[in-house]
Write a structure and sequence with these properties.
The structure is a homotetramer. Chain A contains eight helices and 13 strands. The first copy, chain A, is an alpha/beta fold. Chain A has two domains: 82 residues, ACT domain (Alpha-Beta Plaits, 2-Layer Sandwich), CATH 3.30.70; 195 residues, Formyl transferase, N-terminal domain (Rossmann fold). In chain A, the strands form three sheets. In chain A, strands 7-6-5-8-9-10-11 form a seven-stranded mixed sheet. The first copy, chain A, has a four-stranded antiparallel sheet with strand order 2-3-1-4, with helices on one face. In chain A, helix 3 packs parallel to helix 8. Chain A starts with a strand and ends with a strand. The model of chain A has no long low-confidence stretch (mean pLDDT 96). At the A-B interface, strand 11 and strand 13 of A face strand 11 and strand 13 of B.
Chain lengths: 283, 283, 283, 283
């Protein structure tokens, strides 16, 4: 019964870290299939991602976690271990645009992500049919100024009841409150339709059109309570010319948005992202 | 004696513009080799670049200009005509970094640009040898808070005496005063070492490093009196990762800077750029 | 009743071509909104695309065609005129892979293409449901060695009865016979999953994997009777590393395939492609 | 006295490899600053690059090499260790084109590479001045059909006397004989001016122009005795259109050539390349 364990760990750098980690993997009968390590020389911080295969009949998952807990404690490290057979549980928030949702659902059907999409939450009903075509539970919560806090609390409960690990904002046109965000630190992935930090806030394509840039972009980042300021996971760009109208920018941009968001979700689903301060280390 | 004429013209759009322009070219015995036209549907503005070959023994340059002057008057158009055998006269401003200057001089030696580089002006002496290797006149003006206006006036005189058409700021680390800029409207090309409008002002690589972006850029634009706000000519980007230190960003960025600035100068030297408001039309 | 006419024309280059074309457009009360012209200096061939708006109440479509027929005759030109309100009629051929079909149908629903998709033909039944979700007629023809000619004749009849203008091979895993191809010259658009001319023929991702390239590509081209040798419309690439398995190449590649094929179809639907010999001019 | 050691090692994969390697680094008082590992699941081969800092007063370089020799022996591994303070010794072969040589010399002056360029060899004298501007020894060997073997033997002797580690063919227009190549296995870096395996052999830009591709490329690879078939180190591409003449392709292509070759040399100078069969693993 082969399985794969993936360790993400960060701590203050010192000698012997990789040695002690790989020693433990060796003692746990693991065969490393991928190991990547980064040292930030300014912060003298150590970051590592190690993936190893092991036989679950010989080595118990909880035992692996226990031993790494001891080691991480010794290093005063932040860490997590995930197993390939335990898919991350994902909720997707949407409004009216279908391109990002469609992309994620289609890719997931082709097994590009190692995730389970448990539910879709929307403040509109437009994408109910799309959700149902893929047999995923769709929840509609009509929000307004007065009920926002109450709705968010219902959503938090729903997410927790379903043991959601990751929330994807697939062009969700509402700003989440600090109370919501603090429940899911570095677990909410957003797509912003500009090359951040250019064109923060609303209508970035209009801003880009008016500024006359020659390239537009899209940025996927974790959500924090500073608007469009969270740690960036992935960005990409596309070239435009004076021939492109604002409508053309929106059309070209939505190709970027769905590809960049899909790549960010892929990285997350493969446990490749470590957050440190306002930055990500993407292995 | 074959020559090529290049028309750049913009005016309010109406029926018959291309017809009347190409009729005149035909009557002037020209053979169009390249024609590109753009209509801005929001501003209802018309932009055109037409290049045609003609025999100077049969058609006089001044006669061409005269007839187009009449037509442009009829259209209330902004316009210019340039001839391939009259090279644009370029001055380059530099400080200490050599990469942009080196790139331009090397490309010019290989005849990539149809320009004449008449002089190099610097507030430092570091690049004198490089200028001299390419046999180009090098002027050093040491500037400080007190003499800035006076030095700029000397520079303006020097540029005018040499009939300079285009000024290239090849990582020139001084901000030109409004009095200087207004002497050369849409004729001063700058390279900014970021993907504008992200990271305006000083130390853009440091800003990019601290923000944790996954892509850095460079932007070439015409200089106006609003810092880093002039019409953008060309931009490009390069991917970075958490492995890249601030020093790596600077090294990768200088490749971008020199390529983007060289492309902007190429476009300018081929008379491909029209400015309208804060934007460029690049044919 | 505003409409837009789009002329594509090519002929031997000589003086006055643009003038005579734009004169006619002017006399037909057209307002040019886009004009692009190219002269091949080696072949001395002239290529033009002109788009103009006109009022159908004032100018009759057939009258436009008649007058241009006379002019094209004078130039000994190849030419066609299309009108924006007459959508190109498209048939899509597929086998089992859904990514290209899904992409085209989704984009078409969002009105990115100015086309009508009339029917989908397949040698398998896998994509019937997808076709039906978008309410498009799906035809299944089971082909084998013995019935290939007969089936192709049925398909040709079906395409002609439906007045199909353009055929898109969206990862159709059959080679069309010369008899089929000659019925639709420069009207069959294929996507090949490599950066042509690298890796022609079968299994290009396997070929790329074994060669150890650092970049893979996709190529959309018109089909001729030389395999993978038709005029190229559009290409794009994506970077890979030693970490990418053959399966990763296939996953990354299918993103390319659907984007490149969609771009080629967009160019075709906007009447931007002229074929000359083995090459395309894409305006 | 801080130094950095860099290990490149490959062997058949098995459990405990990273553990045993990092254990030894730990016992040698090294602090790992970069570690990257790859397992080829089809070949079950293990590849690793580890860089660590150490104090030369405490740990002797030869001692490091001795202990790793024992370990590599145990693994039946191919391996090498290099030290940051021992620069790779480079010879550059050129003919008449200056762009690649100019790029490498300029970057090296800015310390982008951790190398020593000891000599330049050419079958022409055109680039002697450029070599001398950078104070590098220039050797001219006029070759013809009759003296090729003799000249190559002189060159081999010259390279060996100068303890050359790496040979860069910077658009060297001669094909090296098998006898020459076998002296420097995986140590001769070439730049080919196409996107290999497209357009092998002579005149790739002409081939690309005639085929009508929309993208051109350049490829840097190690030289083997099969023309343009050696392990690929780095590739890049640039977009072209029908507007680009063959001359434009050459101009655009030389930008690619110099950047791709420079990147390959950078990777080599940082000991980031492992060769396995016809492929490279680039860490």
């Amino acid at each position: 019964m082969n399985n794969i364990a993936i360790l993400l760990l960060s701590c203050k750098d010192k000698k012997g870290l990789v040695y002690k980690i790989t020693k433990l993997i060796y003692e746990l009968n693991g065969n490393i299939i991928d190991l990547d390590e980064h040292v930030d020389p300014i912060e003298t911080m150590f970051f590592v991602r190690a993936a190893w295969s092991f036989d679950e009949n010989l080595t118990n998952k909880n035992y692996i976690k226990e031993l790494f807990s001891v080691l991480a404690n010794e290093f005063s490290a932040s860490w997590e271990i995930n197993f390939e057979d335990e898919k991350q549980n994902v909720a997707i928030f949407v409004s009216k645009y279908d391109h990002c949702l469609n992309e994620i659902l289609w890719r997931n059907k082709l097994n590009e992500f190692n995730i389970k999409i448990s539910l879709i939450i929307s403040n509109h009903t437009d994408l109910r049919t799309l959700a149902e075509n893929y047999q995923i539970q769709f929840y509609h919560f009509k929000t307004n100024q007065n009920n926002k806090n109450k709705i968010e609390q219902i959503e938090i409960n729903l997410l927790n009841e379903n043991n959601i690990d990751v929330i994807v904002l697939a062009r969700y046109m509402q700003i989440l409150s600090p109370d919501f965000v603090k429940e899911f630190p570095n677990k909410i992935i957003n797509i912003h339709h500009s090359f951040l930090p250019a064109f923060v806030g609303g209508n970035p394509y209009k801003q880009a059109y008016e500024r006359g840039v020659k390239i537009i972009g899209a940025t996927s980042h974790f959500v924090t309570n500073e608007l469009d300021e969270g740690p960036i996971i992935e960005q990409d760009i596309i070239r435009i010319t004076h021939n492109d109208s604002l409508k053309d920018l929106i059309i070209k941009g939505r190709d970027l948005e769905r590809l960049v968001l899909a790549r960010a979700l892929l990285l997350q689903s493969q446990n490749r992202i470590l957050v440190y301060g306002k930055k990500t280390i993407v292995f």
